[in-house]
Protein backbone atom coordinates (compact mmCIF):
# COMPACT_ATOMS: atom_id res chain seq x y z
CA UNK A 1 0.00 0.00 0.00
CA UNK A 2 1.23 3.51 -0.66
CA UNK A 3 0.06 7.07 -0.06
CA UNK A 4 -0.29 7.42 -3.85
CA UNK A 5 -3.01 4.76 -3.94
CA UNK A 6 -5.84 4.44 -1.44
CA UNK A 7 -3.89 4.53 1.80
CA UNK A 8 -4.45 8.24 2.47
CA UNK A 9 -8.21 7.82 2.34
CA UNK A 10 -8.04 4.72 4.53
CA UNK A 11 -5.88 6.55 7.11
CA UNK A 12 -8.35 9.44 7.20
CA UNK A 13 -11.37 7.14 7.56
CA UNK A 14 -9.70 5.16 10.34
CA UNK A 15 -8.70 8.35 12.17
CA UNK A 16 -12.30 9.63 12.03
CA UNK A 17 -13.55 6.28 13.31
CA UNK A 18 -10.85 6.15 16.01
CA UNK A 19 -9.50 2.88 14.62
CA UNK A 20 -5.91 1.73 14.75
CA UNK A 21 -4.55 1.04 11.29
CA UNK A 22 -1.76 -1.46 10.65
CA UNK A 23 -0.05 -0.98 7.31
CA UNK A 24 2.45 -3.42 5.88
CA UNK A 25 4.45 -3.06 2.70
CA UNK A 26 7.62 -1.53 1.28
CA UNK A 27 5.79 1.61 0.11
CA UNK A 28 4.50 2.13 3.65
CA UNK A 29 7.99 1.82 5.11
CA UNK A 30 7.18 -1.45 6.88
CA UNK A 31 8.42 -4.33 4.78
CA UNK A 32 7.58 -7.88 5.69
CA UNK A 33 8.90 -11.06 4.14
CA UNK A 34 5.76 -12.83 5.38
CA UNK A 35 2.90 -10.34 5.81
CA UNK A 36 0.52 -13.20 6.53
CA UNK A 37 2.31 -13.56 9.89
CA UNK A 38 0.77 -10.27 11.00
CA UNK A 39 -2.72 -11.70 10.53
CA UNK A 40 -2.26 -14.05 13.49
CA UNK A 41 -3.68 -11.42 15.84
CA UNK A 42 -6.99 -11.16 13.99
CA UNK A 43 -10.14 -13.07 13.15
CA UNK A 44 -10.63 -12.16 9.50
CA UNK A 45 -14.18 -12.35 8.16
CA UNK A 46 -14.95 -11.88 4.46
CA UNK A 47 -18.46 -11.16 3.25
CA UNK A 48 -18.10 -13.15 0.05
CA UNK A 49 -18.29 -16.91 -0.54
CA UNK A 50 -15.16 -18.10 -2.29
CA UNK A 51 -13.15 -14.93 -1.56
CA UNK A 52 -9.86 -14.81 -3.47
CA UNK A 53 -7.84 -14.92 -0.24
CA UNK A 54 -9.45 -18.19 0.82
CA UNK A 55 -7.29 -20.38 -1.36
CA UNK A 56 -4.96 -23.28 -0.72
CA UNK A 57 -1.76 -21.23 -0.99
CA UNK A 58 -2.91 -18.61 1.53
CA UNK A 59 -4.21 -21.23 3.96
CA UNK A 60 -0.95 -23.18 3.66
CA UNK A 61 1.17 -20.09 4.35
CA UNK A 62 -0.97 -18.89 7.24
CA UNK A 63 -1.05 -22.33 8.85
CA UNK A 64 2.74 -22.41 8.99
CA UNK A 65 2.32 -19.81 11.75
CA UNK A 66 -0.43 -21.58 13.69
CA UNK A 67 -3.76 -23.34 13.42
CA UNK A 68 -6.13 -21.94 10.78
CA UNK A 69 -9.83 -22.67 10.46
CA UNK A 70 -11.62 -21.40 7.37
CA UNK A 71 -15.27 -21.62 6.45
CA UNK A 72 -17.72 -20.39 3.86
CA UNK A 73 -21.50 -20.26 3.72
CA UNK A 74 -23.78 -19.45 0.79
CA UNK A 75 -27.39 -19.69 1.89
CA UNK A 76 -29.18 -19.03 -1.40
CA UNK A 77 -27.80 -22.29 -2.85
CA UNK A 78 -27.23 -24.02 0.51
CA UNK A 79 -23.51 -24.63 0.12
CA UNK A 80 -21.19 -24.66 3.12
CA UNK A 81 -17.56 -25.49 3.66
CA UNK A 82 -15.00 -25.58 6.45
CA UNK A 83 -11.44 -26.81 6.78
CA UNK A 84 -8.60 -26.93 9.24
CA UNK A 85 -4.92 -26.40 8.51
CA UNK A 86 -1.77 -26.81 10.62
CA UNK A 87 1.95 -26.65 9.84
CA UNK A 88 1.30 -25.87 6.17
CA UNK A 89 -0.96 -28.90 5.67
CA UNK A 90 -4.68 -29.37 5.27
CA UNK A 91 -5.82 -31.52 8.21
CA UNK A 92 -9.57 -31.81 7.64
CA UNK A 93 -12.32 -30.64 5.32
CA UNK A 94 -16.12 -30.78 5.35
CA UNK A 95 -18.30 -29.57 2.47
CA UNK A 96 -22.04 -29.63 1.74
CA UNK A 97 -23.69 -28.76 -1.57
CA UNK A 98 -27.47 -29.17 -1.58
CA UNK A 99 -27.44 -29.06 -5.39
CA UNK A 100 -25.66 -32.43 -5.26
CA UNK A 101 -28.32 -33.73 -2.87
CA UNK A 102 -29.76 -32.77 0.50
CA UNK A 103 -27.62 -35.40 2.25
CA UNK A 104 -24.45 -34.54 0.31
CA UNK A 105 -21.49 -34.29 2.64
CA UNK A 106 -17.88 -34.53 1.56
CA UNK A 107 -15.43 -35.22 4.39
CA UNK A 108 -11.65 -35.55 4.14
CA UNK A 109 -8.82 -36.01 6.59
CA UNK A 110 -8.77 -36.42 10.34
CA UNK A 111 -11.93 -34.69 11.48
CA UNK A 112 -11.92 -32.87 14.82
CA UNK A 113 -13.07 -34.67 17.97
CA UNK A 114 -16.80 -34.02 18.23
CA UNK A 115 -17.43 -34.04 14.47
CA UNK A 116 -19.08 -37.47 14.48
CA UNK A 117 -21.63 -36.29 17.05
CA UNK A 118 -22.41 -33.13 15.04
CA UNK A 119 -22.89 -35.19 11.87
CA UNK A 120 -25.03 -37.80 13.62
CA UNK A 121 -27.26 -35.19 15.32
CA UNK A 122 -27.86 -33.12 12.20
CA UNK A 123 -28.44 -36.12 9.92
CA UNK A 124 -30.98 -37.41 12.46
CA UNK A 125 -32.72 -34.03 12.45
CA UNK A 126 -32.75 -34.09 8.64
CA UNK A 127 -34.33 -37.55 8.65
CA UNK A 128 -36.89 -36.52 11.29
CA UNK A 129 -37.99 -33.63 9.06
CA UNK A 130 -38.51 -35.86 6.03
CA UNK A 131 -34.99 -36.47 4.71
CA UNK A 132 -34.51 -35.25 1.15
CA UNK A 133 -38.17 -34.19 0.95
CA UNK A 134 -37.86 -31.79 3.90
CA UNK A 135 -38.19 -28.03 3.53
CA UNK A 136 -35.09 -27.60 5.70
CA UNK A 137 -31.43 -28.48 5.16
CA UNK A 138 -29.75 -29.50 8.42
CA UNK A 139 -26.76 -31.02 6.59
CA UNK A 140 -25.79 -27.47 5.55
CA UNK A 141 -24.87 -26.79 9.20
CA UNK A 142 -22.44 -29.70 9.56
CA UNK A 143 -19.36 -27.94 8.09
CA UNK A 144 -20.25 -24.69 9.85
CA UNK A 145 -20.83 -26.31 13.23
CA UNK A 146 -17.52 -28.13 12.80
CA UNK A 147 -15.71 -24.83 12.27
CA UNK A 148 -17.43 -23.41 15.35
CA UNK A 149 -16.47 -26.50 17.37
CA UNK A 150 -12.78 -25.89 16.63
CA UNK A 151 -12.62 -22.09 16.59
CA UNK A 152 -15.49 -20.93 18.77
CA UNK A 153 -16.52 -18.62 15.92
CA UNK A 154 -19.81 -18.85 14.08
CA UNK A 155 -20.46 -16.60 11.10
CA UNK A 156 -24.14 -16.45 11.99
CA UNK A 157 -24.06 -15.98 15.75
CA UNK A 158 -20.65 -14.90 17.01
CA UNK A 159 -20.04 -11.17 17.19
CA UNK A 160 -17.63 -9.28 19.42
CA UNK A 161 -19.20 -7.20 22.20
CA UNK A 162 -18.24 -4.00 20.41
CA UNK A 163 -19.28 -5.35 17.00
CA UNK A 164 -17.24 -5.96 13.90
CA UNK A 165 -15.09 -3.34 12.26
CA UNK A 166 -16.23 -3.28 8.65
CA UNK A 167 -13.64 -2.18 6.11
CA UNK A 168 -14.85 -1.22 2.67
CA UNK A 169 -13.14 0.12 -0.38
CA UNK A 170 -13.35 3.89 -0.71
CA UNK A 171 -13.70 5.03 -4.30
Notable characteristics:
single chain; 171 residues; alpha+beta; 4-stranded antiparallel β-sheet; 4 helices; 4 strands; 16% strand; disordered N terminus
Give an overview of the whole structure:
With about 170 residues, the chain is of the alpha+beta class. Residues about 1-5 have low confidence and may be disordered. It has a four-stranded antiparallel beta sheet, sandwiched between helices. It is elongated. Helices cover about 25% and strands about 15% of the residues. It has four helices and four strands; from the N terminus they run H-H-E-E-E-E-H-H.
Helix-strand layout with pairing:
Layout: H1 7-16, H2 56-63, E1 68-74, E2 79-86, E3 89-97, E4 106-109, H3 115-128, H4 141-151
Antiparallel strand pairs: 1-2, 2-3, 3-4
Helix pairs in contact: 3-4
> Radius of gyration, rounded?
19 Å
Shape: elongated
N-to-C span: 15 Å
Weakly predicted, low-confidence segments: 1-5
**Total of helices:** 4
Report the mean per-residue pLDDT as an integer: 79
Question: What percent of the residues sit in helical stretches (DSSP H or I)?
Answer: 25-40%
Assess the beta-strand content as a share of residues. 15-25%
Strand order of the largest sheet: 1-2-3-4
Structural class: alpha+beta
Count the beta strands.
4
Characterize the largest beta sheet: strand count, sense, and whether it forms a barrel: 4 strands, antiparallel
Helix/strand order:
HHEEEEHH
Amino acid sequence: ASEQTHLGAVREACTRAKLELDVIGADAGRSSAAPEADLGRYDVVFDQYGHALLNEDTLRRLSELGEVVAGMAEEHVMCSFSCGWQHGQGVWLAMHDAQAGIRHLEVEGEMPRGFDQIREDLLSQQDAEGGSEADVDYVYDIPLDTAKLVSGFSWSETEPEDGFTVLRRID
